[in-house]
Design goal:
The protein is α+β, with helices and mostly antiparallel strands and 418 residues long. It has a 7-stranded mixed β-sheet with strand order 11-10-12-14-15-9-16, sandwiched between helices. Strand 14 and strand 15 form a beta hairpin. The longest helix is centred in the middle third of the chain and has 21 residues. The protein starts with 6 loop residues before the first strand and ends with a strand.
């Protein structure tokens, strides 16, 4: 693609921590949830209208585990540092943001999401891409073996505070393994291979349109649905209609699997700055009759409530290992079933990424250069309180999805970008 030629790497460097890691911190224990997480990179791209040069070194001293090498249950914190790249984009940020191409967007990241190095080292890579207009994109890749999206946010906010010389930094809590200690465990079963999608599209719901959608989806059961709930329900509803029509399999059920941050849902809650893979997931099922938005929002809320009550609340007690084991086992079995249509959704709404200010203002755009596997959906905030959705479908399903009357409802118009 022509757009891929616009970005050129002009500098590579290893950024090491400003102070060496003490000998007693040289080995960092992974939690059981980290052990069971995939060896891929979690990624994020933040775009700023102007920039200034900042250092990672001091922040890496606080997040010393990101400088090391991943082993089976531990990280060897040897201070080898993080990989830093500087690149140049031949063009203007405002022009690129008008119609971002998914393949070009991936070039703002310093590594492939599924790179095998995510399971060893480097555990953190950063790419700063300079635009001709003076704008800047910060692309970050952090190994999912030790970090969820909340951890990425904690790191970015701490880095920004250090860059601004703030006296009160955001310090990471590194004690996840004390609550979920690593174990000799493996989840046996056939490897799950997700089908690749040739169609990834970005759908932007601005704040006024999300408000209109909330009014449509509210009911006596869920009087105040969230932004993520109503956008999730609309996308799932339209996708079910498209997939059902194309597959012609009326007997199959539809299942939505969604990740959830467990920090506030366990009892007692975990500190918000605790880093690691502190996530669970819950599933919601619908039949081929495609229920209305109110019913889907009710089901989504019920699924989250039941997960919190029946699983998350048990994660701080003696049953924690069994709860985690059952959760991962059931997720694998769900993905291997051929009698249902599975959609996997991740929401990064309300993660505060637009508050990450390195000293040159807040980002004008934060996005997730998403993968390309069929039936994957990722949600993230827009700068003005709306929701951006990256949706991966087959070409046949996408064609019907985008013609769905509810998606095209003039009362709730959205922006569709390829």
């Amino acid at each position: 693609m022509a757009g891929e030629l616009k970005i050129e790497i002009i500098r590579r460097e290893t950024i090491k921590p400003s102070s060496p890691t003490p000998y007693y911190l040289k080995s960092f224990n992974l939690s059981l949830l980290d052990q069971l997480s995939p060896a891929v990179y979690g990624s994020l791209a933040l775009f700023y209208p102007k920039n200034d040069d900042k250092s990672l070194s001091k922040t890496l001293t606080l997040f010393y585990l990101l400088n090391g090498r991943l082993k089976e249950k531990t990280i060897d914190c040897d201070d080898e540092g993080a990989q830093y790249f500087e690149a140049k984009f031949k063009g203007h940020l405002s022009t690129f943001q008008e119609q971002p191409e998914p393949e070009t967007l991936k070039r703002f990241l310093p590594a492939e999401i599924f790179s095998p190095t995510a399971g060893t080292r480097p555990l953190l890579l950063v790419q700063a891409t300079l635009f001709d207009c003076g704008g800047l994109a910060i692309g970050i890749c952090m190994s999912h073996k030790l970090a969820d999206a909340t951890t990425v946010g904690i790191f970015l906010k701490s880095w920004a505070a250090t860059s601004n010389g703030q006296a009160h930094q955001i310090l990471p809590d590194l004690n996840a393994a004390s609550y979920f200690p690593p174990k000799d465990v493996s989840l046996k079963g056939a490897k799950v291979e997700l089908s690749k999608s040739q169609s990834v599209k970005r759908y932007v719901f601005d704040a006024s349109k999300v408000a209109a959608l909330k009014a449509v989806a509210a009911s006596s059961s869920v009087q105040r649905p969230t932004r993520a709930e109503v956008v999730t329900a609309l996308i799932w509803k339209c996708a079910m209609a498209a997939i059902g029509q194309n597959s012609g399999s009326a007997s199959k059920h539809f299942v939505l699997s969604q990740a959830v941050n467990i920090r506030k849902r366990v009892d007692p809650p975990l500190p918000e700055n605790r880093i690691g893979n502190l996530v669970g997931n819950f599933s919601t099922q619908a039949n081929n009759q495609t229920p209305d938005l109110q019913a889907l929002v009710t089901q989504l809320r019920k699924g989250l409530t039941e997960y919190t009550r029946n699983r998350a609340k048990r994660l701080r007690g003696d049953e924690s290992f069994q709860v985690i084991f059952d959760q991962y086992k059931e997720a694998g079995e769900l993905m291997r079933r051929d009698d249902l249509h599975l959609m996997i959704l991740t929401s990064l709404c309300n993660f505060g990424f637009y508050q990450v200010d390195f000293g040159w203002g807040k980002p004008s755009w934060v996005t997730i250069p998403t993968g390309t596997h069929i039936n994957l959906v990722t949600l993230i905030d827009t700068s003005e309180g709306g929701v951006e959705a990256w949706v991966c479908l087959s070409k046949q399903d996408k064609a019907l999805f985008e013609r769905d009357p509810e998606l095209l409802d003039r009362r709730i118009p959205i922006t569709i970008q390829s």
